[in-house]
């Protein structure tokens, strides 16, 4: 037989029951338990979010160089960029343009590369220039990007040319040794310069950016060979290593060639197509090279399980961008690729 609450008598003689009080007590306990569970879930989700989205930025190193910000007017727009100029810059030094990814800026590009480009500039004697994109985007070759720079038809090629002109005038750089590198949207900007302006750019190194597929490519190839290097991860969450539609949850960026097709297409353009030389250079890094002993070389670094990053030994980007290998110094191999193209 079920238990029943014993009746009680009030001072007025009325009979009452303890059951409502017990029910209220149980409800309070249930609410406390539910609140504790919900609070715990919030903490867990918040912790996972921080683990997934946050990575402490490296400290800016002390450099024997001047780091300066510049403003220049191009097509009526004020554009900005940052330069790193070694204190002992030699005469006729090379210049490297490094283009950041979308929703970033010049400071972010320095950071995601672990400041390795800056350190190499001092060690090897060249100038680094980090342009800032129009509303943090670049007008590359891809037709389907939702970026303001493309939508507003910003002439980022003219911006790059203006930076080169200023560096030649102010620093005496060698205009025959100007190179372009970049990450993601910035890598596509470097690809555009290589395709359209071989008179301006003598080499390209694109990180997490594959060659756009023909239907997604608005650039017209100049017909001249430009040494080109790709660094692509097999687990890139934005730029698919196997090709196809690139993009994020925010939308499509159009189709791209696979990593291997990207290298092969540019090798054909450069006149160095044939059987590539493939070698493993690290535990999770494979180097594929076409025309390695020529001034029209095309090189692909495949990072197994690598993400949408600039691999470097200093800084691993947030996990949401994928893994960063410890076995490839991306800025170093980019500079060595540029230097080798001068032969």
TrEMBL record:
Keyword check for DNA-binding: no
- InterPro entries in the record: AB_hydrolase_fold (IPR029058), Plant_Biomass_Hydrol_Est (IPR050955)
Q: Indicate whether Membrane appears among the record's keywords.
A: yes
Protein name per Swiss-Prot or TrEMBL:
Polyhydroxybutyrate depolymerase
Q: Where are the transmembrane segments?
A: 30-54
Q: Which SUPFAM superfamilies match?
A: alpha/beta-Hydrolases
Q: Which UniProt keywords apply?
A: Membrane, Signal, Transmembrane, Transmembrane helix
Record field: compositional bias (Low complexity) = 1-19
Q: What are the boundaries of the region Disordered? A: 1-22
Native organism taxonomy:
Bacteria, Bacillati, Actinomycetota, Actinomycetes, Micrococcales
């Amino acid at each position: 037989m079920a238990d029943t609450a014993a009746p009680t008598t009030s001072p007025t003689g009325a009979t009452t029951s303890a059951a409502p009080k017990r029910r209220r007590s149980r409800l309070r306990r249930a609410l406390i338990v539910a609140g504790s569970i919900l609070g715990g879930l919030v903490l867990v989700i918040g912790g996972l979010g921080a683990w997934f989205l946050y990575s402490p930025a490296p400290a800016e190193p002390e450099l024997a160089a001047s780091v300066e910000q510049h403003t220049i007017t191009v097509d009526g727009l004020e554009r900005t960029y940052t330069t790193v100029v070694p204190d002992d810059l030699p005469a006729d030094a090379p210049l490297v343009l490094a283009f950041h990814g979308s929703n970033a800026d010049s400071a972010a590009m320095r950071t995601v590369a672990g400041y390795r480009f800056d350190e190499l500039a001092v060690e090897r004697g060249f100038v680094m220039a980090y342009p800032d994109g129009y509303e943090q985007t670049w007008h590359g070759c891809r037709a389907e990007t939702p970026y303001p720079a493309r939508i507003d038809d910003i002439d980022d090629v003219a911006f790059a040319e203006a930076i080169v002109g200023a560096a030649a005038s102010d620093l005496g750089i060698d205009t025959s040794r100007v190179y372009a590198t970049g990450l993601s949207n910035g890598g596509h900007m470097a690809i555009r310069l290589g395709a359209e302006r071989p008179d301006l750019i003598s080499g390209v190194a694109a990180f997490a950016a594959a060659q756009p597929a023909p239907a997604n490519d608005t650039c017209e190839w100049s017909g001249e060979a430009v040494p080109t290097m790709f660094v692509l991860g097999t687990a890139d969450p934005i730029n698919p290593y196997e090709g196809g539609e690139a993009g994020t949850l925010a939308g499509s960026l159009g189709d791209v060639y696979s990593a291997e097709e990207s290298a092969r297409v540019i090798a054909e353009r450069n006149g160095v197509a044939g059987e590539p030389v493939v070698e493993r250079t690290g535990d999770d890094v494979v180097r594929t090279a076409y025309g390695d002993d020529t001034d029209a070389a095309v090189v692909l670094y495949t990072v197994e399980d690598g993400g949408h990053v600039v691999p470097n030994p200093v800084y691993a980007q947030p996990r949401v961008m994928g893994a960063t290998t410890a076995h490839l110094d991306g800025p170093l191999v980019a500079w060595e690729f540029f230097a080798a193209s001068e032969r």
